Amino acid sequence: MDNNHFRQFSTFIEDWVPKEASIAIADEDKYVTYIPGSHDIQINQGQPIPSGSITERVYAQKCRVESLVDKSVFGVPYYGVGYPLEYKEVGINGALTVILPPEYYSSPVSFIVGRKDDLWIPIAVDQIIYMESHQKKTHIITEEDCFQSKYPLKTLEHRLSNSFIRIHRSYIVNISYMKQISRDVASNLEITLSKPEGTTLSISQSYVQKVRDTLGF
User: Fold this and answer.
1) Are residues 36 and 17 in contact, defined by beta-carbon separation less than 8 angstroms?
2) How far is CA 180 from the centre of its chain?
3) Which label site among 14, 93, 98, 107 has the fewest CB atoms less than 10 Å from its CB?
4) If we measure between CA atoms, which residue out of 36, 35, 29, 25 comes closest to residue 2?
5) pTM for this model (two decimals)
């Protein structure tokens, strides 16, 4: 696979990560593509994989790796989330790393502030049923009301505990409010929520495997 194909692959996911994020793709012992975000650690194409990097840890552990990395590796500290790439049919045998500012690494939040009219209200995260992105606005749905957040879903996703799961580009769901998973008339997976009663949300094809792996079915 040439660099143009790698770049097309990485460009495809740019829309799924925060604007601060840089994206690095490694193939075997070197980086083959790097798309800098506002948090740029200045990786060069063809640069060898350094010791202590997220990429090296992905190779060693052969699984998703999430960690802070200090400035001794690239001269700039970062918070990285790395994923193994093992698609032999297209010639990829490496890792993809999403590179974020260090402040993205934090304990899951207990409250998220939502806006209702001219009021800003702290919402306990365990009271959130799901979050929806619609027409460039983020909505937080609880049992009592609907609020707006100034943050996009891709930012909120990093602040939530593993009791929440992303099922769609437009939805993050609190697992404790999931009643069942079934197939719709087109055989696509969908989630029925316990509240509000009768609410169903589609699981997009891009997230089906992640949902299956997380929930174990």
Assistant:
1) no
2) 23
3) 107
4) 25
5) 0.58
Q: Which regions in the chain score pLDDT beneath 50? A: 1-2
Q: In three state form, how does the secondary structure of 41-81 look?
A: CCCCCCCECCCCCHHHHHHHHCCCEEEEECCCCCCCCEEEE
The distance of Cα 36 from the centroid of its chain, to the nearest Å, equals: 17
Q: How many helices (H) and strands (E) does the chain have?
A: 4, 15
Q: Which of these, 171, 154, 174, lies nearest to 163 by C-alpha position?
A: 174
pLDDT tens profile 3-14:
555 555 555 565
Instruction: Say what the alpha-carbon torsion angle 211, 212, 216, 217 is, to the nearest 10 degrees.
Output: 130
Give buried/exposed letters for 38-74 (b at 16+ CB in 10 A, else e): ebebebeeeeebeeebbbbbbbeeeeebeeebeeebb
56 vs 190: CA distance, rounded Å: 37
